[in-house]
Amino acid sequence: MAKVKVARKSTAIDMTPMVDLAFLLLTFFMLTTKFKPQEAVEILIPSSIAQTPLPATDVMIISVSKDGRVFFGVDSKHTREATIRRIMEKYNLDLSPDDVNTFSIMPQVGLPISALSQWLKAKPAERDKILQSAPGIPCDSAHNELGDWIVASRLSNTQLRIAIKGDVDSPYPVIKKVIDTLQDRNINKFNLITGKEAPELIDTSKL
Amino acid sequence: MAAEVGGDSGGGKKGGKKGRKKGKMPRIDMTPLVDLGFLLLTFFILTTTMSTPTTMPVVVPPKIKENQKDQVDPPKIQESRLMTILLGKQDRVYYYIGSGQDEKRPPEMQLTGFSKTGKGIRQAIINQIKAVRDNPLIGPNDKSIMILIKPMDDSKYKNMVDILDEMNILQQKNYALIAPSPVELDMVKKYNEQAGIEN
Q: Hey, which CATH number is domain B79-195, 3.40.50, 3.30.420, 1.10.3470, 3.90.1520?
């Protein structure tokens, strides 16, 4: 008869499944995460039942802050560069190639065109500070720079879709000015950026 | 306790005799790797934003140019199918039925809010839909209602999104976003004075 061996049990736990799972989750989060693009002002968006996600590319975002300042941003470096070149031409603005390059990496503009050159020449940290306290892009009917930005970026990328990103507390008159600016340029179709809400539909014909 | 790779995880036979490599794998201490893995995992879990923003499409009627104003006739619609919603200060919603153009018979204005239950604007719109459906004077082909949304200058962007959202929820296609007329601003002012609400 064989001897009965009492195996000495190890205290080591096989952690392989746990590690597998951890790395699986890590991969998932790494792939799905999207870093919030840095924004000049924080905007709290209202929610709606709309379910269409905001496209990641080819969007022009016109942001309206809580205090009614208007910011303008387009995605892709290439579009930004082409946009600023058109603006330079139209406003006889003299920017160095360095300034153009700086502009093409800035996600948003929120200054009158006359203050653009000074802003682009500032140091990166200062630039952010200037943008945070920027007066926004003028969009009054008398002096409408927003319209020129829209036209310039549209010419630079004809695929651009237009989205308005307003804060919950943005005053309506500013939003109206933005919509009027779009309409004056024959843009009658645009999107409002909202947060997702549970879908809810009421069929009024059955009530 | 450490995460390890390789056979013989039980014993402590590190560095066995030469020539006994068969059947054994070198043990790698994976603890630092796992530590780093969890650190990154925590980082990504905390920084990730799951809620991606959505977009609500809006189509506005094209503007009529000044020199073409005479050539365009405003569409005619029965007054009883018309509902005007005015958005005001502090999420207040005023509404009335009809066009409100007849100054001799001003429409009866009512005040409500965005409440989803009870007497919010949603219920008011539903009531109007039902009233139009049950009205024998309106032909069977004209049973849809027309809603005019007029945000006043002291309303917020949120109010506009909310009312457009109500249109989507109630699946109403006939609405227009337009500016309030001076007559309507006066009506709201008078209503506020009568009801003792601060203008």
A: 3.30.420
